[in-house]
Amino acid sequence: MKRVLAVILTVIMLATTAVGMASCSGSDEGKTIKAYYVSSLYDFDPSLACLDDDAMDIFNLVYEPLFILNEDGELEDGLAEDYEINEEENSMTITLAETYWSGGDCAPVTSEDVLFAWQRILDPNTENQAAALLYEVKNAVNIKRGTDEDGNPVTISDIGVELNSDREFTIYFENENVDYEAFMRNLTSVALTPLRESVVSQRDEYWSKRKATVETNGPFTFGYIDYDAGMFTITRNKNYRRNPEKNTSIKKFVTPYAIETQWYDTVDDSYEGIYLSSLQLGTLSADSYTYYANQMKAWLDKTLEKFEQETVFYVGELSLEAREEYKNSELLTLSDAMSTYSYVMNCAKFPASVRVALSSVIDREELIREVTVFGKAADGFISGGLFDGSDSDADFRENGGSIIKTTVDEATVNKAINALYAAAANGTFDFNKTYYISCKAAEEDLAVAAYIAKRWESVFGISVEIKPLSWSEGAADEGGDEPVKYKIDDLRNAYISGNFDIIAVDYQMLAVDPFVALAGFSSTYNGFGADFSISNKNENNKFDTNQVSNGSIKKHPSGYSSNSYDALIEGAYQTKDMDARAKILHQAEALLMRDMPVIPLYYNQNFYLKSDKLSKIEVGYNGFAICTKAKLTADVEETEEDK
Length: 643
Fold this sequence. Notes:
Elements: E1 21-22, E2 27-28, E3 32-34, H1 53-62, E4 67-69, E5 75-77, E6 80-86, E7 91-96, H2 111-122, H3 140-145, E8 161-165, E9 168-172, H4 180-186, H5 197-202, E10 220-226, E11 231-236, E12 258-262, H6 278-281, H7 290-308, E13 314-315, H8 320-326, E14 332-345, H9 352-360, H10 364-372, E15 376-377, H11 396-400, H12 410-425, E16 434-440, H13 443-460, E17 463-469, E18 471-476, E19 484-489, H14 490-497, E20 502-508, H15 514-519, H16 563-574, H17 578-595, E21 598-610, E22 614-615, E23 618-619, E24 625-626, E25 631-632
Parallel strand pairs: 3-12, 16-17, 16-20
Antiparallel strand pairs: 1-2, 4-5, 6-7, 7-9, 8-9, 10-11, 11-12, 13-21, 14-20, 14-21, 15-21, 18-19, 22-25, 23-24
Helix pairs in contact: 7-13, 9-12, 16-17
């Protein structure tokens, strides 16, 4: 029987049994809260959470960034307990709070862990869009490119970060007049959370893909993960904010002992289709996908039954049919996420005129109404919640207005058809090929892909199939009797490698500064690093970073390249006044939507059902649930271990 692809949680609460956990200095009891949440999460590296809302949901529970944005968009301390700005030296010194990694040795989280994580993101040999969060740091841009403007090598050791002590470090900035507060808002991103070098470097190939090799610094950590048995648990990080020499109760910081997802009621449960590897799933037509979608729906509806029977008090995912049923319920909490569900296009296979035509015939309002129920029709790329300049009350999306249409009329369809025929006539588009939409193997993603595939087939007569991606198996030879096995995230790998026709992703904004998201599509600020196997030297034997088309600088996975767009992103980077920068970024977004390397479909919304017997769940500025102090008030019989 095929077993679990992966189902990862947000927060769903049911009091059940609990087991006390020994901490560095003793033990604390607490309740285990059951959680249900469908996802396909196979990699727990926080710096890579740029493609999946579900990953961000989990990472916001287990990792703690330096600062936090409260519900009003104001900065609050996170891992950082203090900071000091020195305008004369153009620097910022940050002091870390005392806290410890989740591992058994109770190692402290240090400034060296922050530096290691940032150097890893900026390494030119890695592809990481989170690099844009750090571009204000001295030498950060050149580190990612591999050279300075004169072609001299720049390495990660040249980063403008100085370690003063185990818990204090100083950041030096590249340019004067930097907006320090805007940079601190970048540091609220979980992508920049520290990482423990000894853990990562020892098993760099798979450290983030197995519970046994992941350590976290947030209020929770990964407790038990067994894809075959259908179990996923996060538990309190027993070392969070606790000095091992002091007997402070962990309940002061984290109330629940654990949040547990059990995917099966009995060993007889069998939902064939949602537990298959990418290879087993193969490719699907827009009609044949329904078998797998129905299997997923049946599983989701089973968890909803438990909620209605009050044996479960929180449901973090609903089938598409159940969404329609509960969309007006008082039990539903709906919040806007800072991400846009998008189709990234392979620009080598689809010229700009075709990309725009394909986008223009999608009725986004109908897509929400008939398929996803939740979400908001995308009229641009940047989601709501991002700042328009320096003012947290000014929303970039609202001020930018509608850039693309969310409905379709007959004139638009006729124009789109003519554009495809013209592209076919000049040899830039092939009507006879079958094109594939790669997407996550989940009910919503499959339903959206089927809707759009049918739309494109009916309007243009082209063949479109669905390629659901889940996992493949990796193995590392550690010298033992058996290799270490782990799951590989096939969707992320396909995206990074550019191995797709069209690929569906939850495009995360990562920060409230729209520059971070828009820079990803530029040629020189995209975060994908440099390929030093390509010789790209000028007559002075220096690397020429301007010749990106054939040079060492890697492009965005879509293959998009535009000199005009690059110039706008360069101008935005050089402009340190946030209000002036916002005006340039509005131009950049408008140009991006005219070229359409990415087709925005809808702005994501996070949601959950919660009974009135569950309290103290909050929603952060980024739209994700915060359950650190979650409390169940229903009368539930406790075991001795609970008491």
